[in-house]
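Our working data are protein records whose layout never changes between entries. An example says more than a description, so a record of this kind follows.
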Amino acid sequence: MVSRGVTYELACCIVTSRIFHSVQQQKGLENGASLDSVHMIGVSLGAHISGFVGKAYSGKIGRITGLDPAGPLFSGKEATERLDHTDAQFVDVIHTDINALGYRKPLGNIDFYPNGGTYQPGCPQTILGGSQYLKCKHQRSVFLFISSLEQKCNITAFLCDSYVDYRNGKCTNCDVLNPCPTLGYYADKWKNHLIEKNPPVTTAYFDTSDKEPFCMYHYFVDIITWNKNSRRGFIRIQIADNTGNIAESKIDSDAAVFQQYRQAKILAGFYLDFYSISKITLTFSTNNVVGPKYKLRILQMRIRSLSDAKRLHLCRYDFILLENIETSFRPIPCYENDE
């Protein structure tokens, strides 16, 4: 019995070979097709093979998607010996196993790194997981792409220099006029924007849930305090809807610094998405086992959806967070000058 991942890889190589010979024999045009309309999808070794086909046609193929391109034997190779962003008019890559079977460095016009490209939620973390320990992360790129085809949800990615910067809320400049790219099949909606960049290579980071369709819904929370002394700590965030469903942020960021009248930025991600948030619960903690307990005097808290930039921004004003004590409240629409 052939595993699902191996089936995809073998199928990719076979299809790639057929396309190559068909284009050579038919010159790509005799049946009314054009190189612009060709979209090659390669898994692991198949990603690099797709790149070789693209090179044979001087990068005129419309698009190549690389699903966790193979790392062993290809890492450190020149662009002529592996997949490269010049192999097609648009090259997008999903990296899910950069520490083992996959390629670490960017290869395309846009390179997506789900969960940083290493740990993938739901995959075994020890050898006790059997064969899944070896292949689960590598295969995840395929299942993420399939999920984008089914459009059960759109996975938003954030253009960023590193996974750490993304997790610390430094790459959340998405709005209605400048939306963030979407992972998978519809990534080419950002093609014109991405290929104009100099250099034309961009990395994007995001987190996913542990099972299909793998969506995590991102929110940006900013908090302004009026404490005279700076405080350093963590904010645990929960949201709830009117039916009693509750979701807690799954993103672990570094400690935030809360300074008087300055904005502290926190990225939150939830496995559930509530179009209408009826309650927000915040818990402040310094993670200190001994010593005094502190409080945060909040001048303003604002939460906005990054997955749907058109949604109303929600706020709360003038309240206090006691350390390690849950504080719940009903958010209200932000004042117009706070938007």
